[in-house]
Amino acid sequence: MTSATDLHGAPHVARYLETDGEDGFYWRNGTTILILFTTGRKSGEERSHALIFREHGDAYLVVASKGGTDAPPAWFVNLQADPSVEVQIKGERFRATARVATPEEKPEMWAKMAEVWPDYDEYQKKTDREIPVVVLERA
Q: Is the pLDDT of residue 6 over 80?
């Protein structure tokens, strides 16, 4: 049986959803995972992604890093086209609106995310693309 810390991509999403986060909510290095549901900008189909998150007041933060590649992750491009998303945290699924952190907000939010996943700082060094912090606010 695969450990939850070894889960990635579709298998991570599937296990998380099957178990209401019992498997997959806690991930590597003490991080916590939510499932982000976006609408494919071309297909119109629901897409789901397991992402490291942190609470920030009444909102939730995720980072559109894609490991520091020059292209943003598909989920980020999808939510730019349609910021109405759904989020699942453990067994609770809810509607949310996604937005990019403002330049004033980002330093604090980035530091909060890099505190739990220091690789974000390394990812930013690998690309000229400014990696956004995405704020997910309950709708």
A: no
